[in-house]
């Protein structure tokens, strides 16, 4: 069973959608940020503070590589996983990649180290990368249940 991989801006709903999607599709849910935190013994903000974005991205790639060796998962990635090309190969190896789109003004910012700056600019920079990685895109501007239904229509 292929993995369902969720990509998109920080705060777009990947974790919330991923949990319901996993339950609905009888898969296991994994959040990349949580895997990184458990392996490091540090929170994401602490990793950024100690190692900067570069250190975090290295940890992120290692976590993605490890997670993607498994099958039958719903994977919520970090919003910046698309920055490193090598992540695409790991995620695509046995996964269907879904871009979760959400208007920038609706993105959750709390607890997200890179979401304190100009999200409009971040979105402009990352949008071409999200589109290049994605097999399908869904709008997350309705209920979580409807977003999950859209995703299931791509993977059924």
Question: Mind explaining what this structure looks like?
Answer:
The protein has 156 residues and is of the alpha/beta class. It has one domain (3-155): 3-Layer(aba) Sandwich (Rossmann fold), CATH 3.40.50.300. It has a five-stranded parallel sheet with strand order 2-3-1-4-5, sandwiched between helices. The longest helix has 24 residues, at 44-67. It has helices at residues 14-25, 32-40, 44-67, 85-93, 119-133, 144-155; strands at 3-7, 28-31, 73-76, 95-101, 136-139. The chain is globular, with a radius of gyration of 14 Å. Helix 1 (14-25) packs across helix 6 (144-155) and helix 2 (32-40) crosses helix 3 (44-67).
Would you list the SSEs in sequence order as H and E?
EHEHHEHEHEH
Structural class: alpha/beta
CATH architecture: 3-Layer(aba) Sandwich
The percent range for helix content is: 40-55%
Global mean pLDDT: 91
According to DSSP, the number of beta strands is: 5
Question: Which residue ranges are poorly predicted, with pLDDT under 50 across at least 5 consecutive positions?
Answer: none
Main sheet makeup = 5 strands, parallel
């Amino acid at each position: 069973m292929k993995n369902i991989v969720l990509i998109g801006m920080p705060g777009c709903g990947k974790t919330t959608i991923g949990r319901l999607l996993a339950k609905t599709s009888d898969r296991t849910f994994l959040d990349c940020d949580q895997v990184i935190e458990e392996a490091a013994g540090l929170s994401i903000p602490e990793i950024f503070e100690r190692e900067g974005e570069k250190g975090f991205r290295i940890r992120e790639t290692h976590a993605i590589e490890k997670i993607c060796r498994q099958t039958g998962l719903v994977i919520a990635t970090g919003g910046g996983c698309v920055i490193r090309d090598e992540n695409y190969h790991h995620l695509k190896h046995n996964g269907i990649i879904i871009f979760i789109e959400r208007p920038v003004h609706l993105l959750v910012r709390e607890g997200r180290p890179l979401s304190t700056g100009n999200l409009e600019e971040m979105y402009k920079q990352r949008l071409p990368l999200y589109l290049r990685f994605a097999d399908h895109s869904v709008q997350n501007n309705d209920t979580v249940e409807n977003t999950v239904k859209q995703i299931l229509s791509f993977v059924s």
